[in-house]
């Protein structure tokens, strides 16, 4: 009998493993504390994964496959991946062990090590999920100093012939980012997001009885995330019809009233592999092709770029740079993460709102993650280990390969410029331009110093001043130093002093 392991983020119904039923194959899936406890996760994330895994196992069983599903509270559950595998191999007279390449370095190492201890053969399969191989990016950029996403993205467009005419982009232009940066107009009401309504009380009860420590809140009678293939396809359909027409235009916009604006919220389905990136892109491109009078090229290009560009790029960076990547701390930041990250009790409205939404919904869209929460962490010099831990726990879609590259790389610049060519930082000016947060904030967006001065304003200049040696020669940052150098001494002193005051009472901000 062959034993095949399916990990919690390998819920790919279309994997070649499942094309034919074979009585000589036993599948195994497990809910284990090894996975719930390696970081403190959002309760919706744990529930979402277990719910999707249970349905996946049920579908496989209904199709006539043999499967062992170990529940979190099963008596035989050792709560360790490899110890569970050991007793299953022993009790079922397993003659071969097979698994799909894990997407996390941690699990990859664990399974490699485990396989070496077995006295039966092991076979490893591709997860058949990504559009590039694990080490494709490393090979693509071999010998290059910088890993420019744009170059990788163009290669992927050509390779998969997406929005292309021969070797050229279909409209003659590769990138429409410049058109995609609009604030949400005051009267504009985005479409109501499609949410699901699952009763997950039974799963929640097990998690609570097993004393799994989690963060965030959940409504167990109305769990909003898709947990099976049908719902994931429904969400994709909703996205292309209702959100794609304005996806790019308001991609960077933030609004107090609307939590996802025109974003797809497909990341959970994509990262658990309920949806494949190629089907998502093909569906979106087909819809655009049939509706070109209503949907501009900037919208579809913006979306395609996220999936075949950024998503594949981040995965490639992960495998090219792990395990060293997880320890990088370019700015040597050591500040502790303030307590308000766990309860959203801060007077900074942008942070209160973005953190609050993350804790309530296990979701924040890209710009909230990057330009509000990440921006604050970088400006205040928070230790990237703590930033990573928070991001890895809080989001429904957080799996290390895509979390750490975005957080430590893109957002915290802790990699010293592998992912981004400059740190993503902004003052209240940027936040006010892209959101409505500032108008109802305790702090004054236009003040740099004094009573109620917005913390982002002084921290912004403090960041550049304290990292002068590391950043001043970066040609993409030059302007910040030109402004800083031109500032009258007294003014600069006051701003830096204000930042110090804020950093010293960061818990009270
Ligand atoms: P949309 O805006 O609708 O985009 C469509 C899809 O494109 C996403 O579902 C995602 O699969 C992909 N995508 C977009 N941007 C990126 C990106 N930068 N990297 C990789 N894929 C991208 N994404 C995760 O999936 N898991 C994470 O743990 C995660 N952590 C992040 C941490 C930080 C600090 C930042 C700045 C970004 C992070 N992202 C992460 C990327 C991005 O913010 C999320 O993929 C996105 O917000 C998910 O929401 P959505 O499905 O509505 O995305
Ligand atoms: Fe955020 Fe400052 Fe605007 Fe308040 S004033 S919402 S703290 S940027």
From TrEMBL:
Source domain of life: Bacteria
A Pfam entry, by short name: DPRP
SUPFAM superfamilies linked to this entry: Cryptochrome/photolyase FAD-binding domain
Classification via Gene3D superfamilies: 1.25.40.80, Deoxyribodipyrimidine photolyase-related, DNA Cyclobutane Dipyrimidine Photolyase, subunit A, domain 3, HUPs
Name of the featured protein: Deoxyribodipyrimidine photolyase-related protein
Organism: Emticicia oligotrophica (strain DSM 17448 / CIP 109782 / MTCC 6937 / GPTSA100-15)
Lineage: Bacteria, Pseudomonadati, Bacteroidota, Cytophagia, Cytophagales
């Amino acid at each position: 009998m062959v034993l095949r392991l399916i990990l919690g983020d390998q819920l790919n119904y279309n994997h070649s493993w499942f094309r034919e039923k074979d009585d000589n194959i036993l599948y195994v899936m497990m809910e284990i504390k090894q996975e719930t406890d390696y970081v403190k996760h959002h309760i919706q994330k744990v529930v979402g994964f277990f719910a999707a895994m249970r349905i996946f196992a049920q579908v496989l069983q209904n199709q006539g496959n043999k499967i062992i599903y170990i529940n979190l509270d099963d008596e035989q559950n050792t709560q360790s991946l490899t110890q569970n595998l050991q007793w299953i191999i022993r009790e079922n007279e397993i003659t071969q062990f097979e698994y799909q390449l894990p997407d996390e370095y941690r699990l990859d190492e664990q399974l490699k090590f485990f396989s070496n201890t077995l006295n039966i053969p092991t076979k490893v399969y591709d997860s058949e999920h990504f559009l590039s191989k694990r080490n494709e990016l490393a090979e693509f950029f071999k010998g290059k100093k910088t890993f420019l996403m744009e170059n990788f993205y163009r290669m992927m467009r050509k390779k998969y012939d997406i929005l292309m005419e021969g070797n050229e982009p279909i409209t003659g232009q590769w990138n429409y980012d410049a058109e995609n940066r609009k604030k949400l107009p005051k009267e504009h009401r985005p479409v109501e997001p499609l949410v699901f309504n699952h009763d997950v009380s039974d799963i929640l009860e097990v998690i609570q009885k097993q004393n799994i420590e989690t963060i965030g809140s959940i409504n167990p009678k109305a769990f909003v995330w898709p947990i099976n293939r049908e719902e994931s396809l429904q969400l994709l359909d909703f996205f292309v019809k209702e959100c794609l027409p304005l996806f790019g235009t308001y991609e960077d916009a933030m609004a107090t009233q609307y939590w996802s604006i025109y974003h797809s919220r497909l990341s959970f389905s994509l990262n658990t592999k309920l949806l494949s990136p190629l089907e998502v892109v093909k569906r979106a491109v087909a819809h655009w092709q049939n509706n070109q009078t209503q949907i501009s090229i900037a919208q579809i290009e913006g979306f395609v770029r996220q999936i075949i560009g950024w998503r594949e790029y981040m995965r490639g960076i992960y495998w090219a740079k792990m395990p060293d990547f997880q320890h990088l701390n370019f700015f040597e930041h050591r500040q502790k993460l303030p307590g308000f990250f766990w309860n959203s009790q801060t007077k900074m409205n942008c942070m209160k709102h973005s953190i609050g939404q993350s804790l309530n919904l296990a979701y924040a869209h890209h710009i909230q993650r990057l330009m509000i929460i990440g921006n604050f962490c970088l400006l205040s010099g928070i230790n990237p280990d703590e930033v990573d831990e928070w991001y890895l726990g809080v989001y429904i879609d957080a799996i290390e390969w895509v979390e750490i590259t975005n957080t430590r790389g893109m957002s915290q610049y802790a990699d010293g410029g592998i992912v981004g060519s400059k740190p993503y930082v902004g003052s209240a000016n940027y936040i006010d331009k892209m959101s409505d947060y500032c108008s109802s904030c305790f702090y004054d967006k236009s003040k740099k110093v004094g009573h109620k001065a917005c913390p982002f304003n002084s921290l912004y200049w403090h960041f550049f001043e304290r990292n002068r040696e590391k950043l001043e020669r970066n040609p993409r940052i030059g302007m910040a130093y030109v402004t800083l150098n031109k500032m009258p001494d007294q003014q600069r002193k006051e701003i830096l002093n204000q930042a110090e005051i804020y950093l010293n009472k960061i818990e009270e901000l």
